[in-house]
Design goal:
- The chain has a five-stranded mixed β-barrel. Strands 3-4-5 form a three-stranded antiparallel β-sheet, covered by helices on one side. The protein has a two-stranded antiparallel sheet with strand order 1-2.
- It is about 10% helix and about 30% strand.
- It contains two helices and 14 strands.
- By secondary structure, it is mainly beta.
- The protein has three domains: about 110 residues, no CATH class; about 70 residues, Type Iii Antifreeze Protein Isoform Hplc 12; about 55 residues, SH3 type barrels (Roll).
- A hairpin with an 8-residue loop joins strand 11 and strand 12.
Length: about 270
């Protein structure tokens, strides 16, 4: 099974919340090949993240993938970035085939999100001089979590007022918990979220802000600090931070713009 997503270039352009589209697609991969692909993927991400943090790759700890996710090989160089403000999430994309400019505007062949642990957990075992004592089970430590205050219906765009950032005891090492509402800008939920539910990365995906065929406003800056706004037809779907193609209905001229909000773009 493969996790495919569109960029969360944030769920905030940083990020994001963890903001991606998390789609699980069943892929018939051989277990050995999938394990080798995952090991190669983790090594590349560790090396990339180590350069960003100026540390050794072996100091980068990554959360395990869902065992159902089967990592595919990518015939091209992987694209890595931080889609969320917290920068504890790394988005990995296998770009579409084509010229570099064209590949950037096309949906990736596949993409997934990896969680970077902010600090490795350590467990200290204390033994008396004469005998070894097994460590007691660790108590659930309070952790920052994001909780739904009321029912959020599947497909709904997330409103920060529906969420609460709080500290709660969490048993075990759940590395896919979301901790901040600011990481969920322009995101929507992938399932019904009952009140009191802790949100995870797989509960959200980026929301399409500009849909193909719909009218959108493109703001273009000109000389003298003037700004011109034109109405154009989107030629492809766009998420926050995506660069997409638009067409002027009157002149037929093609423009490129960066998605900044619902049906709003900034000209290049």
């Amino acid at each position: 099974m493969q996790m495919l997503c569109r960029p969360f270039k944030s769920l905030r352009q940083a990020p994001s919340a963890w903001a991606c589209s998390l789609v699980l697609v069943f892929m018939p991969l051989v277990g050995g090949a999938a394990d080798a692909n995952q090991e190669l993927l983790f090594r590349q991400v560790r090396e990339w993240e180590a350069q960003n943090r100026h540390v050794a790759p072996d100091q980068i700890e990554m959360a395990s993938l869902d065992p159902r996710v089967q990592v595919q090989a990518c015939p091209r160089e992987l694209l890595l970035d931080h889609p969320f403000v917290s920068q504890e999430t790394v988005r990995v994309r296998c770009p579409a085939e084509g010229p570099s400019r064209s590949a950037q505007t096309k949906p990736p062949v596949w993409q997934l999100y990896l969680q970077i642990n902010s600090a490795p957990a350590t467990v200290t075992t204390v033994a008396p001089p004469e005998r070894t004592v097994a460590p007691s089970p660790p108590a659930a430590a309070p952790r920052a979590v994001l909780v739904a205050k009321q029912l959020i219906v599947r497909g709904s765009r997330i409103d920060p007022s529906l969420l609460q950032e709080t500290l709660q005891p969490v048993v075990g090492s759940d590395n896919q918990l979301l901790t901040s509402a600011k990481d969920l800008e322009s995101a929507e939920v992938t399932r019904d979220i009952p009140p009191g539910t802790l949100l995870h990365t797989y509960d959200v995906k980026r929301s399409v802000l500009v849909k193909q065929g719909q009218s959108a406003l493109l703001s273009i800056s000109t000389a003298g600090a003037f700004q011109v706004t034109v109405q154009a037809e989107a030629q492809q779907d766009g998420y926050l931070g995506d660069q997409i193609r638009l067409k002027n209905a009157d002149s037929g001229r093609i423009f490129y713009g960066v998605v900044t909000g619902p049906n709003v773009l900034r000209g290049l």
